[in-house]
Amino acid sequence: MTDPQTAIDAEADARAATERDPRVADRTAGEVQEGIPFIGAGPGDPGLLTVTGRELVEAADLVVHAGSLVNSDLLTEYCADAEQVSSIGKDLEALVPLMRDAYEEGREVVRLHSGDPAIYGAAVEQMDALEHEGVPTYVVPGVTSAFAASATLRTQLTLNGVANHVAFTRPQGKTLDPEEDHIGEFVGMGDVTTCLYLGTHAVAETMDRLIDAGHDPDIPVTVVYHASWPDEDVIEGTIATIGDRLDEAGYRASAMVVIGDAARKAGYERSYLYDGFANGDEPADSQQEADD
Ligand SMILES: C[S@@+](CC[C@H](N)C(=O)[O-])C[C@H]1O[C@@H](n2cnc3c(N)ncnc32)[C@H](O)[C@@H]1O
């Protein structure tokens, strides 16, 4: 097998040197394609896996999944008879030949990521390494945990008059340098709902940094632990209080931290879509533009 980093570099060079991958134009998202699907398992509840994802998982002989981030109920319900392998603790050098060999033996292989593979999924490097080995891959999207948290909170992440933008981000730490941490900038913009992935263990220090940088300590922060799981929990606070509240609750992982008023549905305004536009006032350029 080619060393994974060499394979990743070679795939990047090939992309730079050639026209766009013809599959981008020839295939649509959601279409079952040749190769190993990288499937978004959704946030946890088996019902939040897409129909296509479920059909592929049910037909699989080998399911490589993201360990405890994928609800074991989903594996029990949809692929109890398949070989199931957790990717936790396995590097590319182990994962790539495992999937390649099974695929080349004619077995149905699926790679199950939590939420949607597009968000902090580290899927592309696996896909590149597999493609370099001659194994085609594609993505089947899923419900990212920020969307599940929004549903739990019965709100919207964009909310007219409150939040015009959403940031999916993560705090600084072992894999993100302080200068790459933009949480303070998103919060400072005022009309952004900031969704922190991979930050449950670092909420208190993240909030301290925001306070040190002069942000309003009363800005709401809402934490949704295990959104869509049976033990789902919601902790509410502010930049000043959420660290202590989360410490008391004892959650150190698997939570979505939502900074901003949208989580509370506070102070929003009626949208143009169901007001002026619906009444035939000055037409919006497109329905899409009025969709907030
Ligand atoms: C490695 S990232 C993967 C994110 C995933 N690809 C997604 O789209 O949700 C793991 C982080 O996602 C968040 N997360 C995943 N599942 C969650 C859930 N059910 N409820 C809340 N947060 C979750 C947590 O912040 C966790 O630290």
Automatic annotation (TrEMBL):
A Gene Ontology molecular function term for this protein is: methyltransferase activity
| Top-level taxon of the source organism | Archaea
Q: Which InterPro entries match?
A: 4pyrrol_Mease (IPR000878), 4pyrrol_Methylase_sf (IPR035996), 4pyrrole_Mease_sub1 (IPR014777), 4pyrrole_Mease_sub2 (IPR014776), Cbl_synth_CobM/CibF (IPR006362), Siro_Cobalamin_biosynth (IPR050161)
Which residues does the annotated region (Disordered) include?
1-29
What positions does the domain Tetrapyrrole methylase occupy? 36-242
Biased-composition ranges, Basic and acidic residues, are: 12-29
Q: Which UniProt keywords apply?
A: Cobalamin biosynthesis, Methyltransferase, S-adenosyl-L-methionine, Transferase
- Biological process (GO), any one: methylation
- Which PANTHER family is this protein grouped with? COBALT-PRECORRIN-4 C(11)-METHYLTRANSFERASE (PTHR45790:SF4), SIROHEME SYNTHASE-RELATED (PTHR45790)
Write out the similarity annotation. Answer: Belongs to the precorrin methyltransferase family.
Which named protein is this?
Answer: Cobalt-precorrin-4/precorrin-4 C(11)-methyltransferase
